[in-house]
Write a structure and sequence with these properties.
Blueprint (H helix, E strand, L loop, with lengths): L7 E5 L3 H13 L3 E6 L2 H11 L3 E5 L8 H11 L4 E5 L4 H8 L5 E4 L4 H15 L13 E6 L2 E6 L3 E7 L2 E6 L1 H7 L8 E3 L3 H5 L6 E3 L4 E4 L5 E2 L3 E4 L2 E4 L4 H7 L9
Parallel strand pairs: 1-2, 1-3, 3-4, 4-5
Antiparallel strand pairs: 6-7, 8-9, 8-12, 9-10, 11-12, 13-14, 14-15
InterPro entries: CheY-like_superfamily (IPR011006), LytTR_DNA-bd_dom (IPR007492), Sig_transdc_resp-reg_receiver (IPR001789), WalR-like (IPR039420)
GO molecular function, one term: transcription cis-regulatory region binding
Protein name: Response regulatory domain-containing protein
Length: 255
């Protein structure tokens, strides 16, 4: 996986030696440690500045606010996958942590291979289930393509086609060239139901039909029965033309 697609991870751990070991294991596995933090305040600041894709959080942190309180605050900023690091197996702590919907738990002392496996599991769990109500969808998502999870900016998804339990992402030329340099441009096929993909899209997306969702930012032309996004043409069912125009900033004029 090239560096531009590597998962960017925030490590929150107050033990310096453990944090160093985690960073070394992540880099060896091909991940990008965007930053490390030792306490609640630093982690919040880093979260806003670096916009990591995933956070590894030690449940027990020095200070009044622990990793569970931090996790809640981080996901209020933007919903991202969380993995808790813990040496504590108390049921009360576990139940508190579970309420923040972590994608995985990793018990200390960890093994490097286990760390990588838990990250894969966390991504799989995160993109399988619905984002909780009130949480803001991420700007970037990771999708399975060419034997790895690759970063895709949702703003660069032009449209999504659905068929059975599969969803096909049609990306801009620039975005596809970034995730698959040298490859012939084609749709990115996901073995994920349409409704699961829609949970991770913001208000710029409009469901043009039962099996097609379009990104309004890429609409170039709207006719009575079809809409054009670059070279792509999407047929509009009866009644969708007016509804679509209401979602667009149209300057009305006489015909």
């Amino acid at each position: 996986m090239n560096s531009s697609n590597a998962l960017r991870i925030l490590v929150v751990e107050d033990d310096e030696l453990t944090a160093w070991a985690i960073e070394e294991a992540l880099i060896a596995a091909g991940y990008n440690v965007c930053s490390k933090a030792r306490d609640y305040e630093t982690a919040i600041r880093v979260r806003k500045q670096e916009s990591p894709d995933l956070a590894l959080i030690d449940i027990r942190l020095n200070g009044q606010l622990d990793g569970i309180a931090l996790a809640k605050e981080l996901t209020d900023i933007e919903w991202i996958p969380l993995i808790y690091l813990t040496a504590n197996t108390e049921m009360e702590t576990y139940n508190r942590a579970r309420k923040t919907s972590p994608a995985a738990f990793l018990h200390k002392p960890f093994r490097p291979r286990e760390l990588s496996m838990q990250i894969d599991l966390a991504l799989d769990n995160f993109y399988k289930w619905r984002i909780p109500a009130g949480k803001r969808p991420p700007e970037d998502v990771f999708v399975w393509h060419d034997k790895a999870y690759v970063r895709v900016n949702t703003g660069q998804i032009m449209l999504i086609n659905a068929s059975g339990g599969y969803s096909e992402l049609i990306l801009t030329n620039e975005e596809f060239a970034r995730i698959a340099p040298g490859s012939v441009h084609q749709g990115v096929l996901l073995s994920v139901p349409f409704k699961n993909v829609l949970f991770y899209l913001n208000d710029n997306f409009y469901r043009a039909s039962r099996s097609i969702c379009i990104n309004l930012k890429h609409v170039d032309r709207v006719e009575s029965d079809r809409v054009f996004l670059g070279q792509h043409e999407v047929l509009l069912p009866v009644g969708k033309h007016k509804e679509l125009l209401e979602r667009l900033p149209v300057i009305r004029s006489r015909r």
